[in-house]
Structures are given as structure tokens and as C-alpha cells.
């Protein structure tokens, strides 16, 4: 039965991702927002919903390793696994002039989290700081994300249909992720895998599957700005929103291993994404293969 639920969750993720990308693209056109901004905000926040649910539930249940490990592992998976897979499907373009601020915010948020983890707890004050950073990011994204309408393009679907597609896709994504995380955790526990490793790998990948489904579908539809924006936005939301909200509800004790072992991976993958944007203006297919190989090595180290 566990394996059946796993398969049902996987199907739900990709169906939800298809409708989310379609609806979000139409919303962007209605408001003359670039697909990158929609990927950074609506899609990025929506696909981070599973991480939020898991982290809050874990913190309240006295499982801080899962609350923090879920976010760190998801950010690593977003860049190595999700962008790697998407780039293999279709080489990704990263328009630096549109995302340099967002990449900068991602780097600053990552550095701030690393500092917060050094004292062994993400406090309520830390949570307030993270949420203030989220507010600044959202204002910047929408104020600076307007673009001229394309008068030659076909008119988008009605706003009501676009909103229904987006919300429906998000609901299906969250349900699918929940089924996958629960079933995959049971499977991992049956093999004697520790809580921290489950959080950094099984739970992190499970809650990142909405991002994977959304970015892969966007890559197939040649909407690479949404694929890239989804990952950058999700990484920002994971730190500023998810850990901010969770810490505001209850301070989160942090195992020393997160600052010493896992944050270097989180920071390193963020820097690699910035280097791709600056030096290559995107992620070619061969680089996508390399990202996937690095992720396989990371999971191997975690499981060793």
C-alpha cells in the first residue's frame, strides 16, 4: 500500500505542476508581469507550501532536525536536482538583468541563515528578521517586475480560469507531496535511516517535488524563465518564509551539524547558480548532467 501511495503522489505532482505553470503564465500576462517574476513569487511560494507544512508540523512535534534539515536539503535539491534535470531537458537561459537582485537576495538570505545557526537556535527574533526580508523581496519583485505588454500575442485565458488553474494546481501539488513524503519516510525508516538524513534527503526531495514537477514541465514548454525563477524564488521562500514563520511560532533548536556540514553545501550550490548566471548566462545541458552527478554524490555521502 505504501508503494501505491508513493506512485499516486508522483502522478498528482506532475498533474498539479502542469496546471500551475499554465495558470501562472496567464496571470503574468494579465498583469504585464514577466514570467520570471511569476516564477519567483506565485510559483516559488506555491511550490514551497509542502516545505512550510512539514517544517511547522515538525517543529511543533519536537522534531527540529526535520524542520531545519527539510529546508536546507530542499535548497540543495532545488539547484542540483531540479535545475539539473530541467537543463537536461532544455538548456536554461538565466536573464541576469532580470534576476541579479533576486540572486543577491538568495545569497544574503543564505548567509544570514548560516549566521543564525551558529548559536544553536533560530529564535523568534531571527524569525522576525527573516520575515522582514521576505517583505522587502516581495515588494521589489512586483514593483520592478513590470514589462511592456506583447500586443502581437494571443490573449490569455480569462482571469477566473487562470486563478482556478493556479490554485487547483497548488492543491494537487501539496496533496501529492504529502503522499510522497509520508510513504517515502516510512520506506526509509524501514531501512534504519536516521531522522536528520531522512530530512536532508527523503523529506527534502519529497517536498521539493512540486518544484521539480513545475520546473520540468516549464522546461518542456520552453518557459525556462519560470523554471529558473521557480527555483530561485523557492530557495528564498524556504529560508525567509518557512523558517521565519516556523521560528515565529516556536524557536527551532539547531543541531551543530547543520552549520558545520550542511550549510557549506547550501551556500556552495547558491554560489554555483550565481556563477552560471554571470559566466554562462544560463545552464547548458552538459552542466545539467554535472549538477545531477554532484547531487548523486551528495545523497551518497548523506546515506553513507
Automatic annotation (TrEMBL):
Q: Would you kindly state one Gene Ontology biological process term found in this protein's UniProt entry? A: intracellular calcium ion homeostasis
Q: Name one GO cellular component term.
A: plasma membrane
Q: How does it sit in the membrane?
A: Multi-pass membrane protein
- What keywords is this UniProt entry annotated with? Membrane, Transmembrane, Transmembrane helix
Q: Known InterPro entries for this protein?
A: K/Na/Ca-exchanger, NaCa_Exmemb, NCX_ion-bd_dom_sf
**What GO molecular function terms would the record report?**
calcium channel activity; calcium, potassium:sodium antiporter activity
Domain Sodium/calcium exchanger membrane region as annotated: residue spans: 3-142, 162-302
The residues that cross the membrane are: 76-96, 103-122, 128-145, 166-191, 232-251, 263-279, 286-303
- Name where it's found: Membrane
Which protein are we looking at?
Sodium:calcium antiporter
Amino acid at each position: 500500500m505504501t508503494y501505491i501511495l508513493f506512485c499516486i503522489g508522483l502522478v498528482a505532482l506532475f498533474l498539479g505542476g502542469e496546471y500551475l505553470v499554465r495558470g501562472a503564465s496567464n496571470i503574468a500576462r494579465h498583469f504585464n508581469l514577466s514570467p520570471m517574476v511569476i516564477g519567483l513569487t506565485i510559483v516559488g511560494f506555491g511550490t514551497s507550501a509542502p516545505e512550510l507544512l512539514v517544517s511547522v508540523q515538525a517543529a511543533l512535534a519536537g522534531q527540529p532536525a526535520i524542520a531545519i534539515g527539510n529546508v536546507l536539503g530542499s535548497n540543495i535539491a532545488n539547484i542540483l536536482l531540479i535545475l539539473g534535470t530541467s537543463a537536461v531537458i532544455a538548456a536554461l537561459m538565466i536573464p541576469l538583468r532580470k534576476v541579479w537582485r533576486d540572486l543577491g537576495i538568495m545569497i544574503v538570505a543564505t548567509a544570514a541563515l548560516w549566521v543564525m545557526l551558529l548559536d544553536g537556535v533560530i529564535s523568534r527574533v531571527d524569525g522576525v528578521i527573516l520575515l522582514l526580508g521576505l517583505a522587502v523581496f516581495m515588494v521589489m519583485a512586483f514593483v520592478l517586475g513590470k514589462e511592456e505588454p506583447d500586443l502581437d500575442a494571443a490573449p490569455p485565458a480569462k482571469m477566473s480560469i487562470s486563478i482556478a488553474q493556479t490554485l487547483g494546481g497548488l492543491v494537487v501539488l501539496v496533496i501529492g507531496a504529502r503522499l510522497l513524503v509520508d510513504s517515502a519516510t516510512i520506506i526509509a525508516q524501514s531501512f534504519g535511516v536516521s531522522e536528520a538524513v531522512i530530512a536532508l534527503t527523503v523529506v527534502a526531495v519529497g517536498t521539493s517535488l512540486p518544484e521539480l514537477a513545475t520546473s520540468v514541465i516549464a522546461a518542456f514548454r520552453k518557459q525556462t524563465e519560470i523554471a529558473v525563477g521557480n527555483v530561485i524564488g523557492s530557495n528564498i521562500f524556504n529560508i525567509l518564509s518557512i523558517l521565519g514563520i516556523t521560528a515565529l511560532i516556536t524557536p527551532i533548536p539547531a543541531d551543530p551539524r547543520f552549520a558545520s556540514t550542511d550549510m557549506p553545501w547550501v551556500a556552495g550550490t547558491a554560489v554555483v547558480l550565481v556563477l552560471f548566471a554571470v559566466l554562462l548566462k544560463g545552464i547548458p545541458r552538459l552542466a545539467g548532467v554535472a549538477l545531477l552527478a554532484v547531487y548523486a554524490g551528495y545523497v551518497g555521502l548523506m546515506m553513507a
